[in-house]
């Protein structure tokens, strides 16, 4: 694929480029070179100023962020101290188990760090106590409570819709208001890029409606957690389009709204392969996130092993930091191909978002199972395309890690528990193939 900088070097016209390509194809139809994704967006052989509908600059410089699961307070504080000694400043911390002294934990967090505290595992009474503590954390402690994400995962509310949303509303500080939206489940369940953006913004809108009625804020921060897949051009453009649509939607409300993206590699294309496949895929996802304009990038942990060693964690972080040193989102400003693809994604996403809102919003789509059905259709379409590409490959013995090597079960677990709605199920594309191979 070629980029034409026709504005700076007008020696060859766009028409002449096409004629030259058609000549070199020696009879093959030019349209055969077009790659059309299952999003309905074409990837062209070359791009010029004709393809650029709008210029949208992204000047974000990404930062590494460490994700920690905290069940032991002192152990987690020690790990935070270690990472701060490695010049890490940003942490995403999920709190487990209600019996810990979380107030003491928050008060002991080092001053040098910035902390995003995910509290959805805790019971409501603990959440309410923590909310008042976190509100006093100034600009360095942010509460993250995405109960809609949990509803989508489990198919039922922790308590009830009214109660769970009320807890979210009460946890939003008027001094430093933050709404956290986890959209990674959409990607991991097989949603298309356009669906991920539209559903993610509709999810944010459900929370925004809660606080907009209160009129207690002048400034609001929206943090979107996104999963990044393996299609470099489209995934990079996805994040740029996501930011563009989010800004255009929320700027109309009159608040000073700042939008941030926390990115991680998607599980959707990961395999239990023992080759370099996962490493290459994750590295490409990091690049897409950074060039796409993610504010924070979280290292990816192993899929079948419980814990990484410090050495592995350090290497993962260094890999991200190295990419950050050599890549900037601003590098793609003005590049016709990315601007054209981002525009197409943004346009389609905005149309879908508006359709969702007209039909009653995201939760209404979940309750009538429209969202689940649409994602399932897109996931099945992707699964068929994926398996068609691999159908003639003869995988050698030991290509996949054997059951004896697993520490974590890598396949979808079937649950029979009663739910209010059909939950969204994250499933990797490789699972069907891996199961067949492991039976041989």
From TrEMBL:
Top enzyme category: isomerase
UniProt cross-references to InterPro entries, sorted A to Z: Cbl-dep_enz_cat, MeMalonylCoA_mutase_a/b_cat
Keywords: Isomerase
A GO molecular-function descriptor: methylmalonyl-CoA mutase activity
Pfam families attached to this UniProt entry: MM_CoA_mutase (PF01642)
Domain of life: Bacteria
Domain Methylmalonyl-CoA mutase alpha/beta chain catalytic, residue spans: 143-411
PANTHER family assigned: METHYLMALONYL-COA MUTASE, LARGE SUBUNIT, METHYLMALONYL-COA MUTASE, MITOCHONDRIAL-RELATED
Name recorded for this polypeptide: Putative methylmalonyl-CoA mutase small subunit
């Amino acid at each position: 694929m070629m980029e034409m900088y026709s504005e700076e070097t007008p020696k060859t016209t766009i028409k002449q480029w096409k004629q030259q390509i058609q000549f070199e194809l020696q009879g093959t139809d030019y349209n055969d070179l077009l790659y059309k994704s299952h999003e309905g967006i074409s990837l062209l052989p070359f791009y010029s100023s004709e393809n650029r509908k709008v210029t949208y600059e992204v000047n974000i410089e990404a930062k590494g962020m460490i994700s920690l699961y905290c069940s032991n307070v002192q152990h987690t504080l020690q790990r935070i101290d270690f990472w701060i000694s490695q010049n890490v400043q940003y942490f995403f911390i999920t709190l487990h188990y209600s019996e810990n002294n979380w107030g003491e934990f928050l008060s002991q967090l080092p001053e040098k760090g910035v902390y995003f505290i995910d509290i959805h595992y805790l019971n409501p009474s603990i959440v309410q106590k923590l909310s008042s503590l976190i509100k006093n954390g100034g600009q360095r402690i942010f509460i993250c409570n995405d109960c809609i994400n949990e509803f989508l995962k489990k198919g039922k509310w922790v308590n009830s819709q009214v109660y769970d949303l009320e807890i979210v509303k009460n946890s939003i500080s008027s001094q430093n208001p933050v709404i956290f939206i986890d959209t990674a489940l959409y990607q991991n369940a097989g949603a298309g890029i356009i669906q991920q953006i539209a559903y993610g913004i509709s999810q944010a809108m459900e929370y925004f409606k809660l606080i907009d009625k209160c009129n207690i804020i002048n400034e609001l921060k929206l943090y979107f957690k996104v999963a990044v897949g393996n299609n470099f051009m489209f995934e990079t453009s996805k994040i740029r389009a996501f930011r563009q649509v989010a800004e255009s939607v929320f700027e109309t409300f009159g608040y000073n709204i700042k939008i941030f993206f926390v990115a991680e590699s998607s599980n959707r294309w990961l395999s239990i392969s023992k080759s370099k496949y996962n490493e290459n895929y994750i590295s490409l996802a990091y690049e897409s996130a950074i060039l796409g304009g993610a504010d924070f990038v979280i290292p990816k942990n192993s899929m079948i092993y419980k814990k990484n060693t410090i050495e592995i964690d350090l290497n993962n972080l260094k890999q991200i930091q190295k990419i950050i040193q050599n890549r900037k989102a601003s590098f793609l400003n003005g590049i016709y191909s990315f601007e054209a693809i981002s525009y197409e994604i943004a346009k389609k996403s905005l149309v879908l978002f508006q359709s969702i809102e007209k039909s009653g919003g995201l939760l209404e789509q979940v309750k009538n199972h429209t969202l689940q059905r649409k994602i399932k259709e897109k996931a099945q379409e992707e699964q068929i395309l994926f398996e068609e590409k691999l159908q003639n490959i003869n995988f050698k013995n030991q290509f996949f890690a054997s059951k004896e090597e697993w520490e974590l079960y890598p396949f979808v677990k079937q649950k029979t528990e009663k739910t209010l709605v059909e939950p969204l199920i994250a499933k990797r594309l490789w699972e069907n193939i891996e199961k067949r191979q492991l039976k041989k």
